Hints:
The protein is mainly beta. It has helices at about 5-10, 15-25, 105-110, 155-160, 190-195, and strands spanning about 45-50, 55, 75, 90-95, 100-105, 115-120, 145-150, 170-175, 185-190, 200, 205, 210, 220, 235-240, 255, 270-275, 280-285, 290, 295-305, 310-315, 325, 325-330, 340-345, 350-360, 380-389. A 5-stranded mixed sheet has the order 5-4-14-8-9. Strands 18-25-24-20-21 form a 5-stranded mixed sheet, with no helix packed on it. A 4-stranded antiparallel sheet has the order 6-7-11-12, with no helix packed on it.
Amino acid sequence: xxxxxxxxxxxxxxxxxxxxxxxxxxxxxxxxxxxxxxxxxxxxxxxxxxxxxxxxxxxxxxxxxxxxxxxxxxxxxxxxxxxxxxxxxxxxxxxxxxxxxxxxxxxxxxxxxxxxxxxxxxxxxxxxxxxxxxxxxxxxxxxxxxxxxxxxxxxxxxxxxxxxxxxxxxxxxxxxxxxxxxxxxxxxxxxxxxxxxxxxxxxxxxxxxxxxxxxxxxxxxxxxxxxxxxxxxxxxxxxxxxxxxxxxxxxxxxxxxxxxxxxxxxxxxxxxxxxxxxxxxxxxxxxxxxxxxxxxxxxxxxxxxxxxxxxxxxxxxxxxxxxxxxxxxxxxxxxxxxxxxxxxxxxxxxxxxxxxxxxxxxxxxxxxxxxxxxxxxxxxxxxxxxxxx
Length: 389
Ligand code: MTE
């Protein structure tokens, strides 16, 4: 596993330490009493990029319904804001509204709070598994995690400003530090999803204030949708007549309207913006390449389906010929993954164990993921190779 410590050893580079360390390590959140918060990479996270902090959760950590915050994956397109002060921070709401408003963190904290347990998955999770391979952060299986997010409803904040009938999309702007000519991370969601009774301006995660990696002091939380919809370090909400047009709406985060021949390019006009997540499962144990003794083997993992519910997880121990139902964990919530487990009576041999999930919309993980030029939404059945002695 490529942990942060291994990575730093490999790099042996003063240049790396000088250029990267100050922005990512010397950070303290005022709400955490001014303590410096350790980089989650210390805790066995897989570092996919140091430049902008992209940390993947090892699948072995997926054995609790809620992911502890230090094990929650991190996806940044650019530098995190260097300084964020909860006293000075403001959220503005404008555009197609009757009365633009500006809110402080203290004002937001006084609003009615709503909690949503949400599985957040990066659209590019599993990109490294697509064939042919595509450029971009080479995520393995762990750009996904689950937490209880809480904060006011976006709807309540929008209603304070009064959305005009012309307001059809809601744009979010984060406080990322944009390097050079990189376009800012701004995206929008349709008004229907913005007004949904589960879409939040989250200030807390698993009961504690958001950490900086996850968007302190406030982020959008768009449940069941690709992680890119949930803008961190939120500073501006703008109601628009039309979808926001910017790099992170187009060409980024779009999916072909029709299946594409693997390796082919697609014209932007033949694509649509990504919204809800696909149905998917991951085996968190035993690990790929394990050697185990014959007997009963506890196979376990997680499965999620975006806005739909997971209704079934099946396991195959013969490479996909026969499938047996796994037991679903009792903890569940609309947008959250389900833990699952399967007790497998093993005999000596070499096996490929697969998992596949089915959801309440009748979607089932396809034998082969749908290839697309940006490598989004990989959701073929997961597989691990096991040697039973
Ligand atoms: N918000 C801002 N401001 N900047 C970003 O780079 N990344 C997005 C989203 N929100 C991003 C952002 C993407 S692509 C994902 S998958 C999620 O944040 C990841 O959230 P996390 O880092 O809390 O896991």
